[in-house]
């Protein structure tokens, strides 16, 4: 029995070549749960994993796809039985372990979570790693005192995956959301997700002239990093926090320690990859209750396995709006 998988192979001329191939179960990596994958998704990291010399994939041939959702087909672990619906994000699946761009996947049971009540496998993949990271960022901000009614929360890279989910959840639970985008044409989309103010990217990204500016934001979910994050740090209100999720705009952080000392702002690092089971369950639970499904559905762009390589290049260029959901079947 063979099945379809997107396989990346090393290639001397181009570095790598990518295509849909027939694969057998014997080729799947070791693991104690085999899942019939229904949907995967496309994250920024998937775009990287499709590039040569990306620093993430260790061995070829490789099946990328850092997320998947589907139905358990076989399990040697008492927590999962055939027929159970499951979701996987993180744990370096799709990087060091074959991932979700495949009709079947074999993984360690510790990496799975049961599909949360109220979500379909397709909706879970519209959330994916980007959405879980956005939710972990919101939880971290709330754990540091953020609450609705305190003032505007900034979301950077708002039209992307992390930004779209953060905007929709924050607005739905009563926060006032200011959305930073470099794409003015996404304004209506961001307002439909609940943003009340659109902030042009160039208004925030610039060389910092003063380490501290007018105290503007009561919190921030940052998917961009670089000069954007540095500038936001200097614009936070007294004691407020920014959750650093991503580096779509760069990995440098050209700031000073002054905002951390005088107004006592906090920089909260967010990792979605090595999150313990309870933390991932908490995030999925909040997604299930606080992300309006009609807004999630409006973010979805459907894709087939064969379209992933082209979309992978687009996400690295910041040209994807919302969430790509890949139907692997
Ligand atoms: P997307 O490409 O979907 O979104 C990124 C957005 O950032 C773009 O849509 C764009 O938004 C903005 N952007 C892109 N390039 C630049 C630039 N040069 N300067 C300023 N803004 C830019 O990616 P994701 O949302 O999936 O991921 C965002 C980041 O978060 C990535 O770096 C990713 O690796 C990271 N990430 C981290 C996780 C973690 O566990 N910490 C988990 C998931 C993602 P707009 O057009 O609206 O300006």
Could you explain how this protein is built, in words?
This protein is an alpha/beta fold. It has two domains: 2-115 and 295-327, Quinone Oxidoreductase, Chain A, domain 1; 129-269, NAD(P)-binding Rossmann-like Domain (Rossmann fold), CATH 3.40.50. Helices cover 29% and strands 29% of the residues. Strands 3, 4, 5, 6, 7, 14 and 15 form a seven-stranded mixed beta sheet that branches. A six-stranded parallel beta sheet has the order 10-9-8-11-12-13, sandwiched between helices. The chain starts with a strand and ends with a strand. NADPH dihydro-nicotinamide-adenine-dinucleotide phosphate is lined by residues 43-45, 129-130, 133, 157-163, 181-183, 186, 201, 223-224, 228, 245-249, 270-273, 315, 318, 320. NADPH dihydro-nicotinamide-adenine-dinucleotide phosphate (NDP) is lined by residues 43-45, 129-130, 133, 157-163, 181-183, 186, 201, 223-224, 228, 245-249, 270-273, 315, 318, 320. Residues 15-326 form the Enoyl reductase (ER) domain. Its EC number is 1.3.1.84. This is Acrylyl-CoA reductase AcuI.
């Amino acid at each position: 029995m063979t099945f379809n998988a997107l396989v990346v192979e090393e290639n001397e001329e181009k570095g790598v070549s990518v295509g849909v191939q027939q694969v057998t179960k014997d080729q799947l990596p070791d693991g104690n749960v085999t899942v019939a994958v229904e949907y995967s998704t496309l994250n920024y990291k998937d775009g990287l994993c499709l590039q040569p010399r990306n620093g993430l994939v260790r061995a070829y041939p490789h099946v990328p796809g850092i997320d998947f959702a589907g139905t358990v087909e076989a399990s040697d672990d008492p927590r999962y039985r055939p027929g159970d619906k499951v979701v996987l994000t993180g744990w370096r699946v799709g990087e060091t372990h074959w991932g979700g761009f495949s009709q079947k996947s074999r993984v360690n049971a510790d990496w799975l979570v049961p599909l949360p009540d109220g979500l379909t496998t397709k909706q879970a993949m519209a959330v994916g790693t980007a959405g879980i990271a956005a939710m972990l960022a919101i939880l971290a901000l709330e754990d540091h005192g953020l609450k609705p009614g305190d003032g505007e929360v900034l979301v950077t890279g708002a039209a992307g995956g992390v930004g779209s989910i953060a905007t929709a959840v924050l607005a739905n639970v009563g926060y006032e959301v200011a959305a930073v985008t470099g794409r003015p044409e996404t304004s209506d989309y961001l307002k439909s997700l609940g943003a009340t103010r659109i902030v042009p990217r160039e208004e925030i990204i610039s060389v910092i002239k003063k380490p501290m500016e007018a105290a503007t934001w009561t919190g921030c979910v940052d998917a961009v990093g670089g000069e954007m994050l540095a500038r936001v740090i200097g614009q936070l209100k007294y004691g407020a926090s920014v959750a650093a999720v991503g580096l779509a705009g760069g990995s440098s952080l050209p700031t000073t320690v002054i905002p951390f000392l005088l107004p006592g702002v906090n920089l909260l690092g967010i990792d979605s990859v090595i999150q313990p089971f309870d933390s991932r369950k908490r995030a999925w639970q909040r997604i299930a209750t606080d992300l309006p499904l009609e807004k999630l559905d409006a973010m979805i762009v459907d894709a087939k396995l064969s379209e992933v390589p082209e979309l992978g290049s687009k996400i690295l260029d910041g040209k994807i709006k919302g969430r790509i959901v890949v139907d692997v079947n």
